[in-house]
């Protein structure tokens, strides 16, 4: 008679014995997985830093453009005031109908006079070039000068009263 325990063990499949280097292969797989995730995290981190720096550069350049444009507007307003004084002087002379000026630093301007019966209309303009962006910014002004104004000049400011002569 046969041994029943021996027969039962024969019916059961034998346990597969792992190869001698199986622990090493799982270590290699987990090590490669860790390295892959590390590379993915590094790539995500670099992408975030790159987006942050690109946004910072864009916002910095936009603020610089605003600053230079506001400077050009301010400088153009000063040149318009000068052109207004020049146009007032030239309006008293019938020969002058227009004038063009180069103020330097990328600023040009001028005026055009139109004489009517009762007044003179002056169109003033100043153009400034933003050297950073290449934009040309223009400022314009339209003034009316009466014909009967002597020499079209502003009166001198009054002097403060003197102690001797109140």
Instruction: Find the structural class using helix and strand composition.
Output: alpha+beta
Q: Which quaternary structure do these chains form? A: single chain
- Helices and strands, in order, run as HHEEEE
The best one-word shape is: rod-shaped
Secondary structure tally, helices: 2
Largest sheet: 4 strands, antiparallel
N-C termini distance: 149 Å
**What is the CA-based Rg, rounded?**
43 Å
Give start-end ranges of low-pLDDT stretches: 152-162
Helix proportion: 40-55%
Mean pLDDT across residues: 78
Strand content: 15-25%
Question: Strand sequence of the main sheet, in spatial order?
Answer: 1-2-3-4
Number of strands: 4
